[in-house]
Fold this sequence. Notes:
Number of domains: 1
Mean pLDDT: 95
Strand order of the largest sheet: 1-2
Helix content: 55-70%
Order of helices and strands: EHHHHHHHHE
Distance between the termini: 5 Å
Number of strands: 2
Strand content: under 5%
Amino acid sequence: MHKIIRHFISPGLALLPRKMDTIEARVLLVAIGLQESRFLHRFQINGPAHGFWQFEKGGGVAGVLNHPSTKSTILAICEELRIESTPESCYQAIAYNDALACAFARLLLWTVPAPLPAITEPIVAWNYYLTAWRPGKPHQDTWGSLHARAVEIVTTKGDLT
């Protein structure tokens, strides 16, 4: 049994302003982590992405480092964690620094101007994920069950079996 809330989500959200830690954010972070890596793969299978949220150096990593709404926050986090705030350094770090990876994931969600979807809206959550992640090969057929599992995980303290 893996405690993804305790080991991945809460440490990452603790690096961010308190207003970014909501139940909606937690559910979406868990759902996206399940969709992208099942919280099993730190490196994309046959691809360049790193971390449980599968960030690419020139995509999500560079995007969060440079977006006007996230740049100052991620630079402060990098300084706090003693990680050079370059795309290459962050890209390498998120493969094993799960708190940093979660912070990047939450900040990528922060770049979407729409409010986070309610935890009861898996279709709206799917569209939000597509907007933020822009996955190359999205698999909507797995999203509904993974989103439901994310709601369960978040509302029952993070057990992943």
